[in-house]
Structures are given as structure tokens and as C-alpha cells.
Amino acid sequence: MNFQEIKDQDQSYILHTYGRVDAALVKGKNARAWDVEGKEYIDFTAGIGVNALGYSDPEWVAAVAEQAGEIQHMCNYYYCPQNTALAEELSKASGMAKAFFCNSGAEANECAVKVARKYGEKRNAYKIITLVNSFHGRTLTTLAATGQEGFHKDFLPLTEGFLYAQAGDLAGIEKLMDGSVCAVLLEMVQGEGGVIPMGEDFVKGLAELCQERDVLLMVDEVQTGVGRTGTFYAYQGYDIQPDVVTSAKALAGGLPIGACLVGEKLGDILKPGMQGSTFGGNPIACAGARVVLRRVNDPGFLQSVLEKGAYLKEKLEAMPQVEYVRGRGLMLGVKLKVKDAHDVLVECAKQGLLILTAKELVRFLPPLTITKEDIDQGLAVFQKVLEG
Ligand SMILES: *Cc1c(COP(=O)(O)O)cnc(C)c1O
Fold this sequence. Notes:
- This protein has 13 helices and 17 strands.
- The radius of gyration is 21 Å and the shape is globular.
- By secondary structure, the protein is of the alpha/beta class.
- The strands form 4 sheets. A 7-stranded mixed sheet has the order 4-12-11-10-7-5-6, with helices on both faces. Strands 1-2-3-15 form a 4-stranded mixed sheet. It has a 4-stranded antiparallel sheet with strand order 13-14-17-16, covered by helices on one side.
- A hairpin with a 5-residue loop joins strand 8 and strand 9 (196-197).
- Helix 3 runs antiparallel to helix 10 and helix 4 (81-94) runs parallel beside helix 10 (283-296).
- Helices cover 38% and strands 19% of the residues.
- The structure holds pyridoxal-5'-phosphate (PLP).
- Residues 104-106, 109, 135-137, 187, 191-192, 220, 222-223, 248-249 line the site of pyridoxal-5'-phosphate.
């Protein structure tokens, strides 16, 4: 099929929930991808922060293919050595105690909400504080958790029990903690909200406040996790230990997985029957995740993420059309002085560079394994589009 036929098929048979760009990718290798007509792209998206090891990394492919040839799925009534091993490896990488596996970021956050409600149940504390401009998912409960009006208005009524505070406003959060609050949920760098890193004092102060008030500190690491910001989880760069951590996107390197990780005191909060997922902890996804975890959770690898991020940031800041760059590691948002971010995205795709936007910023989430050559080639396209 040629591109037009694919586009026609999409128009006829797929719900139009995405504003799509004209390219149908059929093959990829690390940070390069090819479309159905053979055109080559440099990829600064990693499938929205999913393909941590790039497209079709050979070691990841081998592990996934091998597991598919052994046993592809079993029901969660039986033990699965791939998911028990991944849980132990995640515990060691994160300092968290136990994992519940599901299939997406929204589901991981749903589980966090359930954990929080069980935690507050005895004292009738069921409210959860989230931040204005946050993003936590598309289910009705995680939409309610998402502190952006724009996402709410089409789907009212949402799940009740969410309160919103401004990022950085510790006093405001303290005011909301009136005894009915069981948890605070936040991202260390707001991703969809425009690549906005949380300040160190705010995060540390919040951790202390939560501890004082017996309120759970829950960190949504769905986008920031798995090496993206230069530490395995972004909270590890803030020197705090959350009560609950949610992870998804990059965790299995391109296969659907989500995880809700809890600390020691929450290890037995959910009893058999309280939570479940047919596909959760699927052995193929877990086999992929174990390769990702082993490769990414290595000091040299994480250092390379920081170095590449710093290099990319420096080059972008030197472009006269760029107002500022913010973010951490290989999670960067670029504010342009004049051009519209979405127009730039469309033009970049035409010229062979795949990028993202977040609010009015251009957003880069390249594979963590991207080479310096590919960064340079992508930047050359970006520069040309900004000049054009
Ligand atoms: C993408 C994202 C989610 C939702 O993940 P899905 O896998 O799409 O459900 C939740 N939180 C954050 C911070 C995200 O970036």
C-alpha cells in the first residue's frame, strides 16, 4: 500500500482522536526510521518517550522474540518468573518495595489512586491533591487527576475527590490538607504540561509535609522514568523516597506495560481480589523490560543521557530563533520566539525530522541511545526549518 491508501483507510475506519502528521513509519533502527515510501527520518520522539533503546534494538528484539517462542501469556493465577524477576530488579533500582503490573500509565495511576484510598480509608481521607497543568492519563479517574480544565470539559462528571494546587505553592498545598487528604500525586517534570521541572526546594518541602501529615507522596514517573532525565527515576535526582511511584511508557522499551510501585508500609495494602489486570505482567513485555532496565540502570549509560541532553540543550540555546530551553536530561522543551510549535513539527516531518510539542513548546524525547551524529543531523534539519 502507498501512503495515500493508508491515509484513506485511516480516514474511513479509525476514530479521529489524533491530529496525525503525514508519515506512515514501517521500519526503524535506533534513532532513524523509514516510512512506507522509503523516506528516512531522524527521530526525536521515541514514540513519545517509549523506545528508550531506540527502534528495534537487537538485544531487546532477541529477548522479546525468545520469550514469545517459550510462552507468551498465562493467567495471573499462576506464577510468572519474568514478572517476579522484573519486580525484584525494579525494587532494587527504585528503592520501592513491591510492584503491581498493568499495561499503561493511566492504569498505573488508577492503581496508585486505589492504594491511596485504601490508605486513607479508616480516617475517611479519600482526597488526592494534584497539580495544575499536570497530566496523569485518559481514563475518567486519571482525567480527574489531570489538573487541566481543557481535558475535563467533554467528559463530566469525572471521578470526585481531586483537589488542585499550583506547582511550587507549598503553603497552598498545606492549606488543602484538612484531614480529608490521603495523597499528593505529581510529576517531577510536567511532560504534557510543557516540560516544566519541579523546583528542588518545593519537592523536598512537599516530601517533608507529606511525612508530617501522614499523606502519601506519589510520583508519576510515566514520562520521566527509566533514565529519561539522567537518573533511573527522576525523583532520585531530588534525593527523596516517595511512597508510591508509577511507571510505564519507556519501561518495556516499546511494549505495553505499566507498574505501580509501593514502599514498604504499603506492601500489604491491597488484598487478593482488590486489583487485577488480564495482561498485567505479561512475560513478553517483562522480558523486554528486563533488557531495558539492565541497560539503562547503569552509571555510564545514565551519564551519557546527561551529556547528550546537555549537548542538545546547548546547541538549541545557541539558535537565534529559540527563546529558551527547559527540561532535564533527554526531556527537553523548546520555546520559539516567533514560529508556532505545531507548524514547525509539520515542516520538520516534511524535511525528515520527527519531533513533538507540549503546549506551546516544541518537545524532544529522543531515544536514550541516540548517537551524537544523529543529534547533529536532527538539529541541522531543525535549524533549517526555523530559518525557513
Ligand atoms: C503518558 C502519560 C500518562 C498516561 O500514560 P498512558 O500509557 O498513555 O496511559 C500518565 N502520566 C504521564 C506523566 C504521562 O506522560
